[in-house]
């Protein structure tokens, strides 16, 4: 059997959109026979699509339906409950696979670096999104005593946070939100939400669709801060930004004849050219966010004007970005918070190429772009993977671990029994079995999926998300 006909085995670490797009690209090409093992620390695939997209965004979440077809491909195996560094090492992955693609996303927060940021009532957007998204790692996000909230940041995450906080809880009951989250939102006394950005509306990164949906939320009044459009050069705007600005221009200006809201309505305030400088406190809790008025400089940066205002808020949600976190022993650029790479080929801190290691998604490029951006990003990385595998003419002699001479099988990590022909390395199954570790499988995910649909049926909903580790592991064990 020639090298060209041997099946290469590739590990993709992370089964979120980036990893699934990479697996899809590998399994869908006909240049080289490849089998993909998708490894994830969760027993559920889809990553950000499952836990990071607002539950009321069914159109975006439907992308998961399309990506789910990747899991059904003959050339793809899903192994959950596998964490690099805890269950398997980098060296073991490289021993077990012909190539490894890291697609682990960005799981840490960017901080504001201002006084009061560690007070109770100062939280990260990531924590809050994980809570209402039903992630089993999420901590409860109580809203007791919170009448007003400031979200710092002007991207889609801030828009989602504002919408979830301002929307009537009953309107969210059609989603897959867990019951404790719905109950907390139903008890909420939040009446005001500020979206705070240090620059102007032309610099905001939210999409027009998201913005339009937010300002059209039933039962809210929306205002824009005065001076938001000062010095705006509309000729320099791209199509998306122009649409955003036009939409915001149609809203009342804060304190400038804006209609008074009746007691039953909630209020959304866009505060542009406002830079957070301090969170004030009362009894150890956030009791206000002090912002400094900024102005735009000719080079596009902003500077403070010295004019301060304190927003009367009891909760501040930081939505200014995510950061990647390092995997044990894998090269990591702590400044950019990514795995250092050249078009997806991993390099070390000195720029030296790391053979057979690749990355894609946020851990490759940083937390920018929309979910669909991961498709083209994965295509670039996969093209290099295939080119490098094809170029390894001496692979039977040179690749550590070597090739097997005859077709073997993709082993079920629990039983060791093969179920699909493969003629490459053994994958990580033997390492995990030797440690007595039993990863979850696609069948386990389907059991979780079926349980969520059944829970939803009992409440007249499409599904209700299983959101605790105890219940997820019970479903894995019982299957």
Give a written overview of the molecule.
- This protein is an alpha/beta fold and 479 residues long.
- Helices cover 31% and strands 22% of the residues.
- It has 17 helices and 20 strands.
- The strands form 5 sheets. Strands 3-2-1-4-18-17-16 form a 7-stranded mixed sheet, with helices on both faces. A 6-stranded parallel sheet has the order 6-14-7-8-10-9. Strands 11-12-13 form a 3-stranded antiparallel sheet, with no helix packed on it.
- α1 packs across α13 (373-391).
- The longest helix is centred in the C-terminal third of the chain and has 19 residues, at 373-391.
- It is globular, with a radius of gyration of 25 Å.
- The two termini are 39 Å apart.
Briefly summarize what is shown.
InterPro entries: FAD/NAD-bd_sf, FAD/NAD-binding_dom, Ferredox_Rdtase, Ferredox_Rdtase_adrenod. Residues 9-185 form the FAD/NAD(P)-binding domain. With 479 residues, the protein is α/β, with parallel strands linked by helices.
Please describe the topology of this protein.
Elements: E1 8-13, H1 17-28, E2 34-39, H2 48-51, H3 58-61, H4 63-71, E3 76-79, H5 90-96, E4 99-102, E5 108-109, E6 122-124, H6 125-132, E7 148-152, H7 156-166, H8 169-172, H9 179-187, E8 192-196, H10 208-215, E9 220-224, H11 239-249, E10 266-271, E11 274-282, E12 285-296, E13 302-311, E14 315-318, E15 322-323, E16 341-342, E17 345-347, E18 353-359, H12 362-365, H13 373-391, H14 395-398, E19 408-411, E20 418-422, H15 429-434, H16 442-458, H17 469-478
Parallel strand pairs: 1-2, 1-4, 2-3, 4-18, 6-14, 7-8, 7-14, 8-10, 9-10
Antiparallel strand pairs: 5-15, 11-12, 12-13, 16-17, 17-18, 19-20
Helix pairs in contact: 1-4, 1-13, 7-10, 16-17
Keywords: FAD, Flavoprotein, NADP, Oxidoreductase
Region (Disordered): 409-431
EC number: 1.18.1.2
């Amino acid at each position: 059997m020639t090298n060209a006909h041997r099946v290469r085995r590739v590990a993709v670490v992370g089964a979120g959109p980036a990893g699934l797009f990479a697996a899809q690209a590998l399994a869908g090409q006909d240049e080289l026979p490849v089998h993909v093992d998708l490894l994830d620390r969760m027993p559920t695939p889809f990553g950000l699509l499952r836990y990071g997209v607002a539950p009321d965004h069914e159109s975006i979440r439907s992308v998961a339906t399309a990506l789910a077809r990747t899991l059904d491909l003959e050339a793809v195996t899903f192994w959950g409950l596998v964490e690099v560094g805890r269950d398997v090492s980098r060296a073991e992955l490289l021993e077990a696979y012909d190539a490894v693609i890291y697609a682990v996303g960005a799981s840490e927060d960017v901080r504001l670096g201002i006084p009061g940021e560690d007070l109770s009532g100062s939280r990260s957007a990531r924590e809050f999104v994980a809570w209402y998204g039903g992630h089993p790692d999420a901590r409860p996000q109580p809203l007791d005593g919170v009448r007003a909230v400031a979200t710092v940041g002007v991207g889609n995450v801030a828009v989602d946070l504002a919408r979830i906080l301002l929307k009537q809880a009953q309107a969210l009951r059609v989603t897959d939100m867990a019951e404790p989250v719905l109950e907390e939102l139903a008890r909420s006394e939040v009446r005001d939400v500020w979206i705070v950005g240090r620059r102007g509306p032309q610099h905001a990164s939210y999409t027009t669709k998201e913005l339009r949906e937010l300002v059209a939320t039933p039962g809210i009044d929306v205002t824009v801060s005065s001076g938001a459009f000062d010095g705006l050069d509309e000729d320099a705007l791209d199509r998306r930004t122009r649409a955003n600005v036009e939409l915001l221009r149609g809203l009342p200006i804060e304190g400038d004849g804006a209609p008074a809201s009746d007691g039953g309505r909630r209020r959304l305030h866009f505060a542009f050219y406002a830079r957070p400088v301090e969170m004030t406190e009362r009894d150890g809790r956030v009791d206000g966010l002090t912002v400094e008025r900024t102005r735009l400089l000719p080079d596009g940066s902003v500077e403070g004007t010295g004019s301060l205002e304190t927003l009367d808020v009891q909760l501040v949600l930081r939505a200014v970005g995510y950061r990647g976190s390092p995997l044990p022993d894998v090269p990591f650029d702590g400044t950019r918070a990514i795995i250092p790479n050249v078009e997806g080929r991993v390099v070390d801190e000195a720029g030296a190429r790391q053979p057979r290691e690749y990355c894609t998604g946020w851990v490759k490029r940083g937390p920018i772009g929309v979910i669909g951006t991961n498709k083209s990003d994965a295509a670039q990385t996969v093209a290099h993977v295939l080119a490098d595998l094809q170029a390894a003419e001496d692979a039977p002699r040179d690749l550590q671990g070597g090739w097997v001479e005859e077709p073997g099988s993709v082993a079920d990590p629990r039983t060791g029994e093969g179920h699909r022909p493969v003629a490459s390395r053994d994958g990580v199954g033997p390492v995990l079995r030797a440690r007595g570790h039993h990863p979850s499988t696609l069948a386990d995910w389907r059991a979780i999926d079926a349980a969520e649909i059944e829970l939803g049926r009992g409440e007249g909903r499409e599904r209700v998300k299983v959101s605790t580790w105890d219940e997820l592991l019970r479903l894995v064990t019982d299957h």
